[in-house]
Specification:
ATAP; 18% helix; 116 residues; 6-stranded mixed beta sheet; iron; Iron-sulfur cluster insertion protein ErpA; globular; metal-binding; alpha+beta; 3-stranded mixed beta sheet; 2 helices; single chain
Length: 116
């Protein structure tokens, strides 16, 4: 099974996020790992972002590649992430993957929850 990959202009995978994924994949020693971004119900604003590592991409996933690593998003989550940027930030609050989402009408203070 071959997975076609393309970079939709609607979702950006920042260089800092790609570099962090690359270092985590190297640390794990598993080059098949991809960063999966998903949306779930809950959080303090209605929806929340989730991040996990996955070895597989489903046929209907959107796959975005940058610097030799992949980010995957399922179709249900992608509709909420159109136009968003997946980034990695290091600061006083700690280090984490963050979503800069223009579709979010409101977000909570933690930056992990939003409403449409």
């Amino acid at each position: 099974m071959t997975v076609e990959s393309f970079t939709p202009s609607a979702l950006e995978f920042s260089p800092s996020a790609a570099n962090k994924v690359k270092s985590l994949v190297t640390e794990e020693g598993n080059p098949r790992l991809k960063l999966r971004v998903f949306i779930t119900g809950g959080g303090c604003s209605g929806f929340q972002y989730g991040f996990t590592f996955d070895e597989e991409a489903a046929d209907d996933d959107t796959v975005v590649e940058r610097d030799g690593v992949s980010l995957v998003v399922d179709p249900m989550s992608f509709q909420y992430l159109a136009g968003a940027q997946v980034d990695y930030q290091e600061g006083l609050e700690g280090s984490r993957f963050v979503i800069k989402n223009p579709n979010a009408a409101t977000t909570c203070g933690c930056g992990q929850s939003f409403s449409i």
